């Protein structure tokens, strides 16, 4: 399922496309990505962080910055997204 998963499809996008998506829609993508990652991997911490990111303003802002930086550095969302 890893090759056909939604998160794998997102991760297979070109780096520039992912960085642009993070700049404009990262406030939404971070939470949704983590929730979908939970469905794929069943890691409860990822689900909790995804919900917090979507529902809180400061958590959302922090996740947006962290996800943008990890997208630039490692070409994928990595922090609390296992």
Give an overview of the whole structure.
It is a single chain. With 82 residues, this protein is mostly helical. It has one domain. The chain has helices spanning 6-11, 15-41, 44-55, 57-74. α2 (15-41) crosses α3 and α3 (44-55) crosses α4. The protein is globular and about 30 Å long. The two termini are 15 Å apart.
What's the short story on this structure?
With 82 residues, this protein is mainly α. Helices cover 77% and strands 0% of the residues. The chain has one domain.
List the helices and strands and how they pair.
Blueprint: H1 6-11, H2 15-41, H3 44-55, H4 57-74
Helix pairs in contact: 2-3, 2-4, 3-4
Largest sheet: none
Helix and strand composition category? mainly alpha
Measured as a percent range, the helix fraction is: over 70%
**Average of pLDDT:** 86
Order of helices and strands: HHHH
**Total strand count, please?**
0
Helices, by number, come to: 4
* Distance N to C terminus: 15 Å
C-alpha-based Rg, rounded: 12 Å
Which range does the strand content fall in? Answer: under 5%
Shape call: globular
Which residue ranges are poorly predicted, with pLDDT under 50 across at least 5 consecutive positions?
A: none
Q: In total, how many domains does the architecture comprise?
A: 1
């Amino acid at each position: 399922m890893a090759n056909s998963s939604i998160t794998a499809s997102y991760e297979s996008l070109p780096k520039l496309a992912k960085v642009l998506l993070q700049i404009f829609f990262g406030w939404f993508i971070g939470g949704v990505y983590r929730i979908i990652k939970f469905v794929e991997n069943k890691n409860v911490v990822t689900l909790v962080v995804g919900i917090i990111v979507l529902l809180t303003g400061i958590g959302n802002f922090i996740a947006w910055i962290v996800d943008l930086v990890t997208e630039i550095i490692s070409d994928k969302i990595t922090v609390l997204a296992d």
